[in-house]
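anyone seen this seq b4? input:
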Amino acid sequence: MPRKFLRNVLPDQDKLNQNAFLRRYAHRFMHPNLWHLNRHSVAGGVAAGAVGGMIPGPLQIITAALLALGFRVNLPVAVFTTFYTNPLTIGPLYWVAVQIGGFVTGRRGTDRMPPMPSWSDHTWFEWGRAMCDWTLSLGVPLLVGLPLLTALLAVGGYLAVKLFWRVHVLWQLRGRSRRRRPVEG
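predicted toks r here
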């Protein structure tokens, strides 16, 4: 994994200590695994972010951060990974969850999802209520499929990072051994 790229993009502990809100919680962020860029902590961070990303609303980042703190995996990667869900991707992800839930429960998932509530037509409270009504209208297939899809995304992300990291390391080792080989001539 390109560590230099990640080090340039991700915030460090000094930046967090400068934040007035986070300063009082800084002792909780001192564990070194929260900041290490190795395949285990980054893969775990991706898994935590995948789980947090499927939580609706503003709780995504908080959930991912709490999971990263609890499992001692890379915190910035976990927070960044939550951004795979956004207004463009949440509808298709929920549709896939309904299809998975329908397959597992034997209940047919809906072929057409009801339209999502519009942000502009509601206040925050009304939008939250409309979002709950929309979610409940999808029924049991969603309630079963959402945790299954979340688990699949978390495990898939974890394994994909591990595989990518391994391929990257092997590629670098192969390149290093080619450079060290004496030139025959």
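The two ends are 35 Å apart (CA to CA). The mean pLDDT is 83. kinda curious what u guys think
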